[in-house]
Amino acid sequence: xxxxxxxxxxxxxxxxxxxxxxxxxxxxxxxxxxGEGTYRTFLSKHAKDNGTTTELFERVSRxxxxxxxxxxxxx
Length: 75
Known about the structure:
By secondary structure, the chain is of the alpha+beta class. It has one domain. Helix content is 40%, strand content 12%. Strands 1-2 form a two-stranded antiparallel sheet.
C-alpha cells in the first residue's frame, strides 16, 4: 500500500497537480483516493530522520513536505 500512495504523490508532483512544498490539504486534493488516516499520517511517518520507516519526504517547515530525489520505486 505504501508504494501505491507514494507513486500517486510522485505522479501528482510530476503532473504539477501537487506543487512542492505541499501539505495535507493539497495532498488530499491531488490524491483523493485514499482513506482519511492516510492524509493525517503518511507524510510525517515517511519524513526524513523519522528513524523507523522509509524516508520519502523532507520536511521543509511545519506540515510542509517535498519529495526526496531521486524518486524510489519507479518502474
